[in-house]
Amino acid sequence: MKITPDYTVIYNDDDIVVLNKRSGLLIAADRYDEDAPRLDLEAEKEFGKLFAVHRIDKDTSGCVIYAKNPEAHRDLSMQFENREVTKIYHALVLGHPMWESKKVDAKLLVDGDARHRTILNQRYGKVAITDFKNLGNCGPYSWIEARPHTGRTHQIRSHLQSLGISIVCDPLYSGNQHPVLLSEIKKRWNGNADQERPLLSRLALHAYKLTIKHPKTGEQVTFTAPYPKDMDATRKQLSSIFGVDPLA
C-alpha cells in the first residue's frame, strides 16, 4: 500500500474518468523527460486505455479528466479547444497583491527560453487569458484563484510572474524555493527546529475545479478535487492563525 497515492478517483463511468493527481506526475508523454512518472500509465492499470484531453503541469496537483473511448475523446477535446470548459485553480503565493481581481491578456510563447519556460511575447506568442482573484492575505502569503480561459503551458505561472507574483516553491518561475514552515508563521511555536518538517515544500498550485459537458449526456457537470494533505495542512494552519480560508 502506497503512503502517498499517485491519484484518487473523483468520478468514473463508461466514458470518462476524473482523477485527483499528486504533484510530480506527468499527464501524458513529455518530450523533455521521457522517463518521468506518468499518471496515464498508472491509471491505465486500473481503467484500461485512456485518452488525454487536456494537460496540467507535472508539479501541479488536482483535477484531471481522461476519456475512455474515441467518441468521448473527440467531444472533450473539442470542448477544451473551443474554450467551453471552466477551469479553476488555487495557488498560494508570496506577498500581498494590491488588487482584488485582475485580468491578464498577454500572449505567451511556450518553451521560450533556455529553461523551457513560457514567456510573454506579443509578437510570436499565442493568445492567453487568465482571470485572477485575491482570496485573502495571510501573513507573508496570499491565496489566489486563477481561471485560465486558454490552455497554454505554464499559463498561470507565467501570467502571475508578469504581475510580479511568485507561487510558493515554484522551481521555474520563482527565485524563492523556501518551504512553508509553521515555526515561521506561528508566534508561539515550541517544536524542535532541527526536526521540523515543512508544511509545504512543492509548487503550491492546485487544479481545484473543472466544469464540462458530459460527452454522452450533454449535461453540465462540475468536478472538485480536494486539496492534497500538504496543501490542506497549510490551509488549516494559515486559517487558524490569520483567519483566511480559500475554501470558506
UniProtKB/TrEMBL annotation:
Domain Pseudouridine synthase RsuA/RluA-like: 15-162
One GO BP: enzyme-directed rRNA pseudouridine synthesis
CDD domains: PseudoU_synth_RluA_like
A GO molecular-function annotation: RNA binding
Pfam families the record matches: PseudoU_synth_2 (PF00849)
InterPro entries: PsdUridine_synth_cat_dom_sf (IPR020103), PsdUridine_synth_RsuA/RluA (IPR006145), RluA_PseudoU_synthase (IPR050188)
Family assignment from sequence similarity: Belongs to the pseudouridine synthase RluA family.
PANTHER family: MITOCHONDRIAL RNA PSEUDOURIDINE SYNTHASE, RNA PSEUDOURIDYLATE SYNTHASE DOMAIN-CONTAINING PROTEIN 1
Name the record gives this protein: RluA family pseudouridine synthase
